[in-house]
Design a protein that fits this description.
By secondary structure, this protein is mainly β. It has a single domain, classed as Double Stranded RNA Binding Domain. Helices cover 10% and strands 23% of the residues. The longest helix is centred in the middle third of the chain and has 10 residues. InterPro entries: NADH_UbQ_FeS_4_mit-like, NDUFS4-like_sf. It is found in: Membrane. This is ETC complex I subunit. Keywords: Electron transport, Membrane, Respiratory chain, Transit peptide, Transport. It comes from Rhizobium changzhiense.
């Protein structure tokens, strides 16, 4: 049984950063998923795939995994690099591309 510990990224559908400060422990897939031949649904006998545990810090998530004997790997979060651009830069005479309407 193995798991990954990560901090989720901001959702692409909203500009807010809700639930991005929590750390998630998610179990890895142990058995392959099967497709139901009649309905086409995807199913699995592995119930741990459905479990997502949230923690306030990475240390708490790691302590939980160690206490329960779970092999884990930590995926470091990638913070976005913000590019600061001012509106007057659109009208600079040193622009590399011409400004047109």
């Amino acid at each position: 049984m193995s798991a990954k510990i990560y901090r989720p990224a901001k959702t692409a559908m909203q500009s807010g950063k809700a639930k991005t400060n929590l750390w998630v422990l998610e179990y890895d897939q142990e058995s392959a998923r099967k497709i139901d031949p009649i309905m086409g649904y995807t199913s699995s006998g592995d119930m741990r795939q459905q479990v997502k545990l949230t923690f306030e810090t990475q240390e708490l998530a790691e302590a939980y995994a160690q206490r329960n004997g779970i092999e884990y790997r930590v995926i470091a979060p990638k913070d976005p690099v913000r590019q600061v651009v001012a509106y007057p830069d659109n009208f600079r005479y040193t622009r590399t591309q011409p400004w047109t309407h």
